[in-house]
Amino acid sequence: MSMKVERLPLVEEFYSIQGEGFNTGLAAWFIRLGGCDIGCSWCDSRFAWDPGLYPEVETDTIVLNAIRSGTDSVVVTGGEPLMWNLDYLCNELKKNDIRTFIETSGAYPMSGIWDWVCLSPKKNMPPAYKICRVADELKVIIEDEDDFLWAEKYSEIVSDRCRLYLQPEWSRFEKIIPEIVEYVKKNKKWRISLQVHKYMHIP
């Protein structure tokens, strides 16, 4: 029986379109949880790093808001959402026939029941082997040439069914995208992920 986590530090929740990776274009309810100690220099959600800045909201309320949105899919993101036990959150969403997706660095132990696990490993705190093996999608942020080696390292650890994506770091897009394009042309197991929600000017 899963532990009931009564409250979670809620940064924001909103209905939008998935903008990255395999599920690009999917309508989903996003739940952003506070807390992250990885500290990526290029992070575009650093406002979520300190969980103490955000109210601890009853998990049942978070679930109810997702249900009321009319969504059939929920994306849990952060921060680093696996800093918190997500078993109860997922169980309650599943009771209401809502699919569950997570975006994680994999640096913390897995909790929750997921229809899709997007693993985005970070050098500061590398992911656990177990999470690598259950990942449905490996999405590596490319800031410079060294990141291609990092991506290849984890492509060898994830399962054969895992989809592989390289995503340009947003602030270096113009400089790095030609290198990513050439890399994918030579290494055809990879695909390119773009942050299309930024082009659409949506959250």
Give a written overview of the molecule.
With 203 residues, this protein is an alpha/beta fold. It has one domain (7-199): Aldolase class I (TIM Barrel, Alpha-Beta Barrel), CATH 3.20.20. The chain has 6 helices and 9 strands; from the N terminus they run E-E-E-H-E-H-E-E-H-E-H-E-H-E-H. A 9-stranded mixed β-sheet has the order 3-1-2-4-5-6-7-8-9. Strand 8 (163-168), helix 5 (173-186) and strand 9 form a beta-alpha-beta unit. Helix 1 packs parallel to helix 2.
By secondary-structure content and strand pairing, the structural class works out as: alpha/beta
CATH fold annotation: TIM Barrel
- Poorly predicted runs are none
Number of domains: 1
Beta fraction of the residues?
15-25%
Q: For the record, what is the CATH homologous superfamily label?
A: Aldolase class I
CATH class: Alpha Beta
- Average per-residue pLDDT, rounded, comes to 94
Number of DSSP strand runs: 9
By DSSP (H or I, 4+ residues per run), the number of helices equals 6
- Adjacency order of strands in the biggest sheet: 3-1-2-4-5-6-7-8-9
Second-tier CATH architecture = Alpha-Beta Barrel
Gyration radius, rounded = 17 Å
Oligomer kind = single chain
Shape: globular
Distance between the termini: 35 Å
- The helix/strand series, from N terminus to C terminus, equals EEEHEHEEHEHEHEH
What's the gist of this structure?
The protein has helices at residues 59-69, 87-95, 129-134, 146-155, 173-186, 196-199; strands at 7-17, 27-33, 56-58, 73-77, 99-104, 116-119, 137-142, 163-168, 191-192. It is of the alpha/beta class and 203 residues long.
